[in-house]
Amino acid sequence: MSHSATGSSAATQPELRSLWSAVAGGEMRLRYVDAGGVRTRVLEAGSGRRTLILLHGIAGHLEAYMRNILPHADHFRVMAIDMLGHGFTDKPDRNYEIDDYVEHLKDFIDAIGEERVHLSGESLGGWVAARFAARYPERIDRLVLNTAGGMIADPNVMERLRTLSLAAVRAPDREATRKRLEFLMLDPSIVTEDLVEARFGVYRLPGMAKAMERIMCLQDLDTRLRNLLTEDELGRIAAETLVLWTTHDPTASVAVGRRLADLVPNSRFVVMENCGHWPQHEDPDTFNRLHIDFLKG
Length: 297
Fold this sequence. Notes:
The protein has helices spanning 19-23, 69-73, 98-111, 124-135, 155-170, 174-182, 193-203, 208-215, 221-227, 231-235, 254-263, 279-282, 284-296; strands spanning 2-5, 28-35, 38-45, 51-55, 77-81, 117-122, 140-146, 240-246, 267-272. It is α/β, with parallel strands linked by helices. Helix 3 crosses helix 4 (124-135), helix 5 (155-170) runs antiparallel to helix 6 and helix 6 (174-182) packs across helix 7 (193-203).
C-alpha cells in the first residue's frame, strides 16, 4: 500500500524553532548507557509501555530528532541515540560497517532491559534498522525505514557525502558544516544557525576527524557493495513496517523507496511531499502524525 502525504512545505513553515525550544517544555533526560563497553549518548523522554528507538543518519547525531521527541513521548518511551562512532558516543578505532552498528544497537537494547522495541531509522539509521529487524525479528514490534540507505550504490552521491563530511570535520569554520547540513534539505533556509552550531560542536570533538574517516568507509564502493541490503534479508523482516520516502531525497529516488517497500513483506509505503533527506525535521507536523499513527497501529 502506498500514498503521498502533504503537509506545509519547507518554504511556508510558519516558524523555524531552535533545537532547544522544540524540547524546552518537556521532561527528558540526557545520559549515557554502557552498551557492550561503548559509552552511548541517549536522550530519553516519555514513559509509555512501548520503547521507541530513533536512529539518525550517517555523520549525524541524536539532535536530528529534536522536533519529534516530545510529540512521541506522549505515547512511548522515546530514546534517541548517537550511534557507534557518531556524536558524543565512543569512537573505537576501526571502520564501522553495518554489522558493527547492528551489534551496538543490540547491546544498547540489552543494556536498557528491553526485549522488544519499536525501531525507526533515517538514512544510515534505516539501513541499520532493516538489517537488525531481519537478524533479530523477535526484538522488533514495529519498524520505520525513513529515506533508508542500503539499497543502492550511487558513486556520485557517495563521493558527495564523503567530500562534504570530511571537509566539515577538517575545516576550521562553520561554513563547511552548513554545507553538509544543506545537502539534507530541500529548502536550505531550514539550516538555522542553531542547527549548524549543534553539529559544529560534534564535528570539533577530539578524534572526530579520524572517526569520520571510519564512518565514511561505507562510501567506498567495495565496502558498500558487501554491506547492501539483500532481497533475501528484506524478505525475512517480520515486523509491520512503514517505508517513508520523500519527493526530493538527494540520495535515492522514490522508485528506490518503493522497491524497498515491495521487498519487505508486511509493509506500507508513504511519500512525503516537499522534503529532502530529513522529513522528520523539515516537516515535523506531517512526519509526527504519520509516524505516531503507524506506531500506535
